[in-house]
Amino acid sequence: MGTSQSTSVAAPRLLRENTGLCSSSEPLNQRCGLSGVTLGRRPLEPPFDPSVPRLRDPFWALWKLRPLKKARGSSSSLATLRRRLLLRRRRSSKCPDHARYMRELLSGCSLAEVSALCEQYEALAALKDLSVQADLARPPASAKKHDLAALFETRVAADVELVYAGACFPAHRAILAARCPYFRQVLGRFPGHGARIGLELRTPGVDAALFGALLKLLYTGELAPHQHDRPLLGRLADEFGGAPNPLEQDLRYLLETGDFADAMLVFTKGNGSSSSSSSSGHSEYGFSSLGTLERPCHKAVLAARSPFFKNLVQRRNRGEELQPERAGLNLATRIVLDESVIPQRFSSVLLHAVYLDEVNLALVCRPLEGGPTSLEDAMELYQIGRFLELDILSQGCEDLILEMLTPNNLATVLAWGARPYGSAWVYRQAVNYLRDEFQPFSQSPVLLQLSAEHLREALSSDFLQASEHEVLQAVLKWGEHQLVRRMEDREPNLLSHTAHSVARKGVKKRDLSDVELREILSPLLPLVRMDHVLPANAETLAHAVRRGLLPTPPSHMLGGDRDAVRIHAWIRSTSGCAQGVWIRPRLFMPYYEEAKAVSLIFSQLATSNF
């Protein structure tokens, strides 16, 4: 028992002394039987006497397997130059060694403290998975077969009544005629609106319930499982002229041909007048001389897919019922849409979404030169979908916007998503994109395009993928850019376009006002977790403290045991005598991976018998 305790206490000290806690050396690990253990790049230089064998010490084995140093005179000048160039490249690299900084931080920790940090990271990783799933959640858009099933059940906009076996079934001419040859012939003999048609089938054994299930099959393309009487269904298929086509095929036929159309979508320009069309509702398909576009469609499909169109169709039907002179006439109901609300160039995209559940931006009528981009079209179509309460269109546009999301348009998408008419779902995905790619964004012009609100949204997250040092550098860079823009705005108009303007000659950092910069950064700097800046002696942090930009310096700069304060800022202490204030670390993956690797080394050293 005593041996185990002494081993666990000595493990961190032995790791610090023998490895220097540097980056990995996989071949040596494998040769020593420590696969998966991360060790150092620097030569292992233990303070003990190399002549004394310590066979059971794995780090002693690493020391024996180290590459031997050559004599100084044996290296050529070319090799020396190559080493100097490599060293210069490493020093000038802008990518910090996050793993090394984390190992240096944990070099003074015990196994229990490292394990506690890993547990914190694991809890954050589980929380991140839940957060991502919550951000992706949205109510599913209803598919066409579900909307048509609801249309059949609610009997909205029904224009014919079928009577069979003493039961009455309100239905829709266009759907029945397009789906079944038998009903196409029957309805052709009774063309009036609201006709009541009695039916008799030659096939025996078909009751009212089965007849209703067959009608629902024509609306949805699916038959209830308990209705699968194959011999009876085969005889009915023969009488009805064959099994129905796939639902999408028949809906595409209605869309492309306009057969059995009982409504006309009129896309107008200007004040919404459509005087070029005849009062009967039958007009030539396409653009008229006054710029009016007419698209034949079907009231049943429109009412099924969109509550906006359903209310409109119901009002029009009630109005037509009050006009006896229109009874028995198959006149198309005209639905006029103003160009300022729904532009003509979106007509094909709109109808394809209604009939086929497709959102295809290739159907947008674009000018030969200039005009909106595909991203702008998707944003406008999203608003049209919200106006028409057509969820399949609005959600399809959301998916297209995410597919087109790039660093170049990230600021545009964030600004649009944050507006009242934008998509909150797209905004959440764009913020997650900014959060996950913040490290490369902080070193690119994308950072300077972001607003303070968007930066606050990203910096408030526990899952921001950047070290606190990089976050601090990004915030200072953004603030200095905002200050320069403010100086340009204050510049007199006489100098704005001359060689003496701020935009032309530039501004040096020493000319920037620290007081004004602190005011600009006041909403953002409190979100930077200063106690987690690694390395703790980073020049960026020290310079910000000297300039008076930070409201409160990091706790390790306020005196006391600095190492203990730094550790307890990362690791929650269970004892009440801990120094410093614990701050939840972000789930920065390089830190997380290195903490797991160090914990593995500590565990193996603690369980080894030296």
Blueprint of the fold:
Layout: H1 2-19, H2 26-31, H3 58-64, H4 77-92, H5 98-106, H6 111-136, H7 144-154, E1 160-164, E2 167-171, H8 173-179, H9 181-189, E3 195-198, H10 208-220, H11 230-240, H12 247-257, E4 263-268, E5 286-287, E6 293-297, H13 299-305, H14 307-321, E7 333-338, H15 347-356, H16 374-388, H17 391-403, H18 410-418, H19 424-436, H20 438-441, H21 446-449, H22 452-459, H23 468-490, H24 502-505, H25 514-521, H26 539-546, H27 562-570, H28 589-607
Parallel strand pairs: 1-3, 4-7
Antiparallel strand pairs: 1-2, 4-6, 5-6
Helix pairs in contact: 1-28, 5-28, 6-28, 7-10, 7-13, 8-9, 8-12, 12-15, 13-14, 16-17, 17-19, 18-19, 19-22, 23-25
Describe this structure in words.
There is one protein chain. By secondary structure, the protein is mainly alpha-helical. The protein is 51% helix and 5% strand. It has 28 helices and seven strands. The strands form two sheets. The chain has a four-stranded mixed beta sheet. It has a three-stranded mixed beta sheet with strand order 2-1-3. The chain is elongated and about 95 Å long. Mean pLDDT is 79; it is low at 1-75, 81-94 and 271-290. Residues 158-227, 298-363 form the BTB domain.
